[in-house]
Amino acid sequence: MSQQINLFNPVFLKQKKIFSAVNMVDALALLLVGVAAFYAYASIETVNLGRQAVETSRQYEQSKARLAETSARYAPKKIDAALDLEVNNLQAQLSARKAALNNLGIGIPAGDASYAEYLRALARQSLGGLWLTGFKVGKGGAEIEITGRALRPELVPSYIRRLRQERALQGRAFDSLSMTQGEGALPADASRPAGAPASYVYTEFRLGSAHAGRALDGDAEPAGKTATEQAGDIEQGSRQPARSPGRGSR
Question: From CA 177, how far away is CA 230, in angstroms rounded?
Answer without folding.
Answer: 7
